[in-house]
Amino acid sequence: MIVRFGYVAMSTVVKNASPSKTMTMASFTKLNNRDAAIRKLERIAAENLHNTLRLLKHNRAYDIKVYRFSSKLIPLATHADLTDWDPFIALKDDFADVGKYVREHGMRVSFHPDHFTVLSTPRPEVLQNSIRDLQHHVQMLDAMGLNAMAKNNIHIGGAIKISKRLPHGLKKIFEGLIREFKSA
């Protein structure tokens, strides 16, 4: 068995390289110009992707081949008030650069959507938000041109056993996700 160590998103060694810079919806709204606010989100996201590439280059220099991307590469990407915004248009080249570097250097990368991404929930609104969040992560991997070797890791379960809440429902949810992602 080959064991490879990596790390999650942030480096304590590479300075000023956060791949998770963000903007709150309150800050977005305070700008009073939606187009300007969206451009600011896109600049922050481009900087996050640039810093991700810096971290990947650092990783290569130190033979670190496993890396978990920040789920916060694009601030507010899944916010309900921004469903009409497609950040991937403006960030196409930035995502492509990250993906190209990963492929060229045989790195193993993944995402781990936040803890509120819960597929085993009995609450329909939480499930819908979780699916939207997973779709966003798949879109980011697709924008990088990464195949199924790049993963989205999610937790299943929680405090209440799945078998008591969703004995057959989780299988249906997964089957629906597979169909949805195949058609995307």
Automatic annotation (TrEMBL):
Name assigned to this protein: UV-endonuclease UvdE family
One record GO biological process: response to UV
Nuclease is among the record's keywords: yes
One Pfam family hit: UvdE
UniProt xrefs under InterPro entries: UvdE, Xyl_isomerase-like_sf
Entry-linked NCBIfam families: uvde (TIGR00629)
Organism: Paenibacillus pini JCM 16418
The entry's keywords: DNA damage, DNA excision, DNA repair, Endonuclease, Hydrolase, Nuclease
Keyword flag DNA repair: yes
GO MF entry, a single one: hydrolase activity
Domain of life of the source: Bacteria
